[in-house]
Structure formats: structure tokens, C-alpha cells
Design a protein that fits this description.
heterodimer, A: mainly alpha, Arp2/3 complex 21 kDa subunit ARPC3, two-stranded antiparallel sheet, 9 helices, B: mainly alpha, about 65% helix, about 0% strand
Chain lengths: ~230, ~110
């Protein structure tokens, strides 16, 4: 899901840089206001976790690969705004140091994986969980939170790819990403619905269960419902 | 750091050691590039040409450790796997450092 350089036209990546800049500014402000001393180490570990989980490329045999992002579980444990900061840092390091994701596409990639994902994850978790404090309903909420947030992020990414032939073609030939929406959206949606989303869902559920056992009061998404 | 947080750091290090699975499995199951992350050459094979602006801007940035690999595609598997683990370790270190620094900076501004 890391869009490389050359795939997005400036008409796409410049506005996405601007949107991402807005989100990261608010996120830094929120983190400054609310970050507890206890959560300082968590923030770095969350970024590291996201960084690592993205290195686990999972194959669809004979076809393509993909990976989980970890943004959903980071959002559930730390809250959506700290997740924006943590996952963005991981993505920016990946782009500059390892060439995973383009430099011009940092705004887009951070928007897709570090903004869309955490907020979708929190929304889904709240909706599915309802008032349950523990048990299967919380586990299901965590699974769907990871699953759907990755699928939504993949579809948003696919839309960014897919609009390129529409907005940046010359003599009927695309100048950037070559496939239109009718190919990009189903391709990205289906592979993430069938496999990568399931992995994100399982990771989200298992790590949340682990945190619930060890540091339940520290988990953002589990605190909320008590209020 | 609480004992639980220290334990998490150890788990992260273990995950980094397992990370070469992320290159072994795709190779074993003959899975190609992620969708939309093809090289310019692969795009030529897929659609018959390289989009003009994509060709111009695809290599705008030269990453110090491209694809988490200190060697290249032809390097032995051991080199690639060790590079991958080392990249994971660098990733953990940088993520922790950057966010620790950022937290310090933000908290200082508060006072």
C-alpha cells in the first residue's frame, strides 16, 4: 500500500500533503496536551511495531503480496491522534531510508495508513463493541476494527491510483499510474478483503487481548466505555 | 519504563528477528510485487509502455538501504535475510529515538 514515486500526479500528491499536514499538526497538538509520561515509551514502541509489521509481506500464491499496517491496534491502545503521529513516523522513515513508499507520496501514504486507518479503526470498534466490557463482542470489535480499517485504507489508496489516468493523461496515454478506477479499486479491495485485512484483524484482536490482560487501564479504547 | 513495557521491547526485537519471513514466504509462493508498487520495467511488461512522467520521477530519491537490502536482488539469501533483520533493528531504533525526541520537544514547549 506504499505508493512509490512517479505513480501520483502533483495534482494528487500536493493536496494530500496539505491534508496530511493539517492532520499531523492537530495530532502533535493533541499529543502535547494529553501525552502522559507513562505513554512516552509506548509511542515509540507503537511506531516500531507498525514499522516491523509492514515488513511482513504476505503472499497471495502466484500473484501478489501485501501486509498489515498495525495502525488499528495502535489507535485502539493509544488513541487515534497518537496513532497518527506514530504510524507517520514509521512511514516517513520507511520512505527516506528504505525507499518503501515515495518521497512525493509521503503525504498520500501517511493520509491513507496513518490518518484514514486509525480513525476508521476507532469508529468500527466503538460501533461493534457497543457497551460490552469484555468477551467475544470486544474481540469481534477488535478484529473488525483491524479488518475494515485496512480495507478502507486500501480502497482510498486505490482511488488515488485509479484517478490518475483521468486527471493526468496525454494523447490518451496515462502519464502516471496506468490503471483506472475500474481496475485499481477491485484489485486492491479484493486482495485486502480476502487476506491482508484478515491478518490486520487477527493482529489487532490478539494484541488487544494481550494488552487487556497486562495493562487494561492503559488501553484507550477500553477506557472510553467506562466513562 | 514499566516491566510490561520492557517485555514489549523484547517482543519487538523478536519480531525483527522473524522478519525475514516477509521475504521468504513471497518467494516460496511465487508472489510478485505488491499491487501498484511495480518497477518501471514491470509496468512496461504489464501495460506495454512506461508512462512518461512516471519514468521521469520514479527514481527521484535514492534510498540508502533500498528494499531493506544491503546487497542487491542477486545477493545470497543470507545477505538479504540479515539485511532485513538489521533494517528492522534500525527501524525500531529510529522509531523509538524520533518519538522520544519528539515527546521531549513537545513537553518542553508546554512549560
Amino acid at each position: 500500500m506504499h505508493i512509490p514515486d512517479g505513480y501520483l500526479s502533483p495534482q494528487t500528491y500536493v493536496p494530500l500533503y496539505a491534508v496530511f499536514a493539517g492532520f499531523i499538526a492537530v495530532a502533535l497538538k493533541k499529543v502535547r496536551q494529553n501525552l502522559s509520561a507513562k505513554n512516552v515509551p509506548y509511542l515509540g514502541m507503537a511506531a516500531a511495531f507498525s514499522f516491523l509489521i509492514m515488513m511482513f509481506n504476505v503472499p497471495i500464491p502466484g500473484a501478489t503480496t501485501g501486509h498489515a499496517v498495525g495502525a488499528a491496534i495502535v489507535a485502539l491502545v493509544l488513541g487515534p491522534w497518537p496513532a497518527v503521529v506514530a504510524v507517520s513516523v514509521a512511514l516517513i522513515i520507511q520512505a527516506f531510508l528504505f525507499g518503501d513508499g515515495g518521497i512525493t507520496a509521503i503525504g498520500a501514504n501517511c493520509f491513507n495508513m496513518a490518518v484514514v486507518m486509525p480513525f476508521t479503526a476507532i469508529l468500527v470498534f466503538r460501533l461493534v463493541r457497543g457497551k460490552a466490557a469484555a468477551g467475544w463482542r470486544v474481540s469481534l470489535a477488535a478484529f473488525l476494527s483491524g479488518y475494515l480499517s485496512l480495507v478502507v485504507a486500501a480502497v482510498v489508496t486505490a482511488i488515488e491510483f485509479g484517478i490518475q489516468p483521468l486527471i493526468a493523461s496525454a494523447d490518451g496515454k496515462p502519464l502516471y499510474a496506468p490503471y483506472g478506477l475500474e481496475i485499481a479499486v477491485p484489485a486492491m479491495a479484493i486482495e485486502h478483503m480476502l487476506l491482508f485485512g484478515v491478518i490486520e484483524g487477527l493482529v489487532t484482536m490478539l494484541v488487544l487481548m494481550y494488552f487487556a490482560r497486562n495493562d487494561r487501564d492503559g488501553v484507550y479504547a477500553l477506557q472510553e466505555a467506562k466513562r | 519504563m514499566s516491566p510490561f513495557q520492557k517485555k514489549l521491547l523484547v517482543i519487538l526485537a523478536m519480531v525483527a528477528v522473524l522478519s525475514p519471513l516477509g521475504i521468504i514466504l513471497p518467494e516460496k509462493f511465487e508472489a510478485g510485487d505488491a499491487w501498484g508498487e511495480w518497477s518501471a520495467e514491470t509496468i512496461r511488461e504489464l501495460v506495454g509502455f512506461i508512462p512518461e512522467k512516471l519514468a521521469e520521477t520514479a527514481d527521484i530519491w535514492r534510498a540508502p538501504i533500498p528494499d531493506y537490502n544491503l546487497g542487491d536482488e542477486k545477493s545470497s539469501f543470507a545477505v538479504q535475510a540479515l539485511s532485513y533483520i538489521l533494517s528492522g533493528a534500525i527501524g525500531i531504533g529510529l522509531c523509538v529515538l524520533v518519538l522520544f525526541g519528539l515527546s521531549k520537544l513537545l513537553v518542553k514547549k508546554k512549560e
